[in-house]
Amino acid sequence: MTTDIDVSDTYFIIKNSQIAITFVLWLLIVVFLFRMIRRRHQAVNKKFVVAYTVITALLLGLFLGLGLVKGDSAAGTYNTEDLDALMFRNQLKVWCMEGCLLVQVIFLIYFFIQMVKKPVPSGV
Length: 124
Prior knowledge:
By secondary structure, the protein is mostly helical.
């Protein structure tokens, strides 16, 4: 399965597996960044972590789930309804990924704010 992305009259066709693998690697990096915040401040905002985790898992799960729902028609014989369904599913996948990217940008802003804040003294 693939995701088609249209950017200024240029079409990109990307395998869902490549997107998923890249995103899983990014989530591993996020875990280490949360550990850095915890090491620096002795705590992480639990509400932020829960909201981040739930929204990211929901959007990523929806993205991957849409790739598994009713695949291509047999032998490429698409009728108008098949094409409409494919375009709608593809647009939902693009919206899910845009939402995921927005959540990741919010996380990076949170991370940089935490790194700029004065660390908690280690003796306390």
